Amino acid sequence: MDKVTLSKPYLLDSSDLTKEDLYKIFHRADFFMQNFKVGNKFDDLKGFIVALAFFEDSTRTKLSFELAAKSLSAEIFSFQAKSSSLSKGESILDTFKTIEAMGVNIYVVRHGSSGIPLFLQNNTDGSVINAGDGKHEHPTQGLLDAFTIIRKLGRIEGMKICIVGDILHSRVARSNIQILNTLGAEVALCAPGTLLPFYPKEWNVKIIDNLDDAIEWAEVVMALRLQRERMESGLLPTMREFSNYYGINIEHFRRKPDLVLMHPGPVNYGLELDYLVNEYSNVMIQTQVTHGVFVRMALLSLIGKTMNKEKNAFANLFDM
Amino acid sequence: MDKVTLSKPYLLDSSDLTKEDLYKIFHRADFFMQNFKVGNKFDDLKGFIVALAFFEDSTRTKLSFELAAKSLSAEIFSFQAKSSSLSKGESILDTFKTIEAMGVNIYVVRHGSSGIPLFLQNNTDGSVINAGDGKHEHPTQGLLDAFTIIRKLGRIEGMKICIVGDILHSRVARSNIQILNTLGAEVALCAPGTLLPFYPKEWNVKIIDNLDDAIEWAEVVMALRLQRERMESGLLPTMREFSNYYGINIEHFRRKPDLVLMHPGPVNYGLELDYLVNEYSNVMIQTQVTHGVFVRMALLSLIGKTMNKEKNAFANLFDM
Amino acid sequence: MDKVTLSKPYLLDSSDLTKEDLYKIFHRADFFMQNFKVGNKFDDLKGFIVALAFFEDSTRTKLSFELAAKSLSAEIFSFQAKSSSLSKGESILDTFKTIEAMGVNIYVVRHGSSGIPLFLQNNTDGSVINAGDGKHEHPTQGLLDAFTIIRKLGRIEGMKICIVGDILHSRVARSNIQILNTLGAEVALCAPGTLLPFYPKEWNVKIIDNLDDAIEWAEVVMALRLQRERMESGLLPTMREFSNYYGINIEHFRRKPDLVLMHPGPVNYGLELDYLVNEYSNVMIQTQVTHGVFVRMALLSLIGKTMNKEKNAFANLFDM
To answer: Which of B89, B149, C5, C85 is the most buried (most CB within 10 A)?
Structure first.
């Protein structure tokens, strides 16, 4: 059997993935999706220890990676910052050196500060997967979103996709823009001026000022979660105003019933989305979650194959 | 092999269980008790994902369900409210929709508010098991208590059972009264007037004012945990007075050495019970805990068989 | 096959282990180290339930025991104090009685108060392993440190080992002194007078006042973690002064490049150790962590064999 590998044995930001890498991941995710049965395990990560190191609260991403890693027969080390030695002032790098010395070779890291996954990758023999770092990136969300579009609409190249909401602070937006560009989609942004990035042209996107125009133009709309803290920092006048101008509601669907709507969750219903939109079958929120498991299985599997040749930190220590 | 099923594929309150259901559960619990070996798994829940969603602190109930589900080969998602996205303001229903989209089909739920399990059952294709909701019910405690009486005394129909202590606020009492009535026991309550329910007659129980009379009458006494918060709300004059009038001590056992004493734990020793009573072999506190594992295995197994025919949420999503 | 057992079926302090016990553990740890493969399990603890009861925050020790117990096919109950019923005022003993009633037979306990493991051992039919109690002992750290010296230097008898830093408050120091003495090493202590124990002579150690002399004398130096709280209690003038007089830096290694340096972690870099010392290959910090897994596997395995004959708490309850 041919060994399918990625360009790089880690995933720090979406630009680590070439178009070819992306399709390898989607192909493998398709395979897992066809063949997955709860309780039956693939052995892609047999002999690997995966650390789930979440320094920010998380339900969906952590459980998704956990189910994915388990389903590939990995051993799992799971820890939250608060219950670890970090409360004794141990540095993150020390914590990583410690778990590396216990044989961990894949690190799934979420952290409130941008760049922590990169820093850790530079200081380990293992592989780091970025599960969300500050306002920087959340590349596996980008992966699962692209996978969802392909499975829903058959292709992604040339598709018109508009991202709506708080682009400026969104690591999800950053990862999606990169991956959608790599895959040849047309990307637009629609947001209040205070929540737009400063140099959108460098991102190869168009700006659509008005939500009605955006929805008319787009085949897929991705709404983003609005961080309620943004209110207080003066970037938005009121939630009500945001909801009136940038919230997606049942009226939009009445005008365009085949609109494909995505959201990374958790949704602030009444703010980004009206709860009633869930009646439309093209609202993909649940499906995105399901796809997340398979895309993460695919990523973990391919990273395992790509890093396989590398030295195992645990093995090293036995040779002393 | 015949497929044994329950009347309903979920357990929200004790009235969901008919007498026939109860004996099916006890029969299966007996089977597991005879055949259980730590480390050898039954495959009753192979292919199921069980979420342990505990929104209140818990040692015994959570570990008990965890051991039970593992011993039946289920995959387990375990999460506490505080470390989940709920701290980001995600609604409980959203959290459930998310884990449902990852394939969870059985939800074991403990929550501080009465009615949450019912609400969730109404909004999922899976099965909810109530592991304690507010002051409403804790039906698996009722199950394990009844199972303990049957195993200890050979039968439960016609037995005289008195529940002592803070009936008013106790979800354990509510579940026990329902199940004991269904099984044909005679049930009495003994408590200070401020801790009795308002309409005990509707519950088909008798009231015994005096603890000495209660112990003389009863074959089994169930003491309840007194919530220390009750003191502060003015429902009790002092702990000392409660203990003097409603605490069970060694004197009661000297007068009636064959008294069977139960308590759902954790015990406030010195308040509901004198620590010395543990010298008597008919004090069932530890045994109740052990039985809890087997009764929960039985319940999970039968719910799995009952819901088997239903659509799997995960499977649904694959068909899109 | 002969059954290798220890003198005692538990480990509360290092004096529970004879010289013969220690070499049995190291021999078994060597075996596991040669034969370990992530994902392949030994069955030494098949049928056992191991509770990891950590009442203090911990990364390295908890994950190390968890990996060790899993690799021996044990079932694991993991709980932290804060998320358990202990927040309802349940006593520790009650918690242990509860998990004992669910079949737990090995308890790995870390607690902020000295003597808790002893108290629990006196009240259970199972086996307690002390994973650190107050300022008393941390015997498995002593085990893994001795194992590291033997593997690094070929032997330990007659070796000169100096422990540097806050001896007075260190449970690690107490366990190391006991085990190193049992194994026939020469032990010295080097610390500011306020951080030395009161009667070092009873401990069979020599005192070396000056760090330079200590390093010249020793073949192995064990630095200890300085608890920052010590500052505030007036036992140390400033951190800077401690670091100047008792911190180990690159100069020490330039003068003695073959110095073997150990530290139990987490390190306060800049205080006990200069970060640059990590360039030297005889700095064993990571290796100690790796050895911790195998030494704990060995200990768990041998305790399992030693206690095997004893009654199983779970089994007992079935006989009622």
So the answer is: B149
Q: Pull the structure tokens for residue A167.
A: 């682009």
Nearest CA in chain B to C48: B38
- Domains of chain C (ranges plus CATH)? 14-137+289-317 (3.40.50.1370), 139-284 (3.40.50.1370)
* pTM given for the model: 0.93
Question: In whole angstroms, what is the distance from residue A317 CA to residue A310 CA?
Answer: 14
C-beta atoms of B267 and C79 within 8 A: no
CB proximity list for A165: less than 8 A, separation 6 or greater: A190, A191, A195, A223, A224, A225, A226, A246, A272
Nearest to C93 by CA among C12, B144, C85, B270: C85
Cα C258 to Cα B175, C221, C244, C283: the distances in Å are: 70, 11, 22, 10
Spatial separation of the C-alpha atoms in residues C194 and C214, rounded to whole Å: 18
Sign of CA dihedral B80, B81, B86, B87: negative
Closest to C264 in 3D by CA, of C182, C130, C170, C161: C170
| Residues 6 or more apart in contact with residue C282 via CB below 8 angstroms | C152, C257, C258, C259, C260, C261
- The whole-number pLDDT of residue C236 equals 82
> Residues B111-135: pLDDT tens digits?
999 999 999 999 999 999 999 999 9
Q: A136 near A13, Cβ under 8 Å?
A: yes
Is residue C112 within 8 A of residue C56, CB to CB? The reply is yes
**Contacts for C99 with CB less than 8 Å, ≥ 6 apart:** B59, B63, C51, C53, C77, C107
User: B touches which chains (3+ CB pairs under 8 A)?
Assistant: A, C
Phi, psi of A159 (to 5 degrees): -70, 150
d(CA A264, CA A59): 12
- Pairwise CA distance, residues A281 & A279, whole Å: 6
Pairing of strands B127-133, B106-111: parallel
Question: Measured between alpha carbons, how far is residue A37 from residues A291, A298, C36, C250 in Å?
Answer: 14, 15, 29, 55
Sign of CA dihedral A240, A245, A251, A257: negative
Instruction: Specify whether the CB–CB gap between B69 and B300 falls below 8 A.
Output: yes
Cα separation, A77 vs A107, whole angstroms: 9
Contact C140, C100 (CB under 8 A): no
CB atoms within 10 A of CB B113: 14
The side-by-side arrangement of strands in the sheet containing C160-164 is C206-207, C186-190, C160-164, C220-223, C260-262
**Two tokens, residue C245:** 């007089």
| Sequence-separated (6 or more) residues with CB below 8 Å from residue A145 | A176, A179, A222, A262, A264, A288
pLDDT at C82 over 60: no
CB neighbours (10 Å) of residue C153? Answer: 13
Beta-carbon contacts of C251 under 8 Å, excluding residues fewer than 6 positions away, are none
Q: For residue B289, give how far its alpha carbon lies from the nearest alpha carbon of chain C (Å).
A: 6
Residue for token pair 């090995």: C106
Among A49, A90, A100, the residue with its CB nearest the CB of C38 is A49
Specify the DSSP element, H or E, that contains B133: strand B127-133
Per-residue confidence band for A314, with pLDDT thresholds at 50, 70 and 90: low
Encode B84-123 in three state secondary structure.
CHHHHCCCHHHHHHHHHHCCCCEEEEEECCCCHHHHHHCC
Interhelix angle C19-35/C139-153, rounded to 10 degrees, is 70
SS3 C30: helix
Question: Which residues of B are less than 8 Å from A269 in CB distance?
Answer: 91
CA-based nearest distance B46→chain A, Å: 6
Task: Kindly list the distances between the CA atom of residue C111 and the CA atoms of C53, C93, C130, C131, C136, in Å, as whole numbers in the listed order.
Answer: 8, 13, 9, 8, 10
Say yes or no to pLDDT of B216 above 90: yes
Tokens (6 digits) for C5: 């057992």
Contacts of A47 in chain C (CB under 8 A): 37-40
If you measure CA to CA, which chain B residue comes closest to A288?
Answer: B101
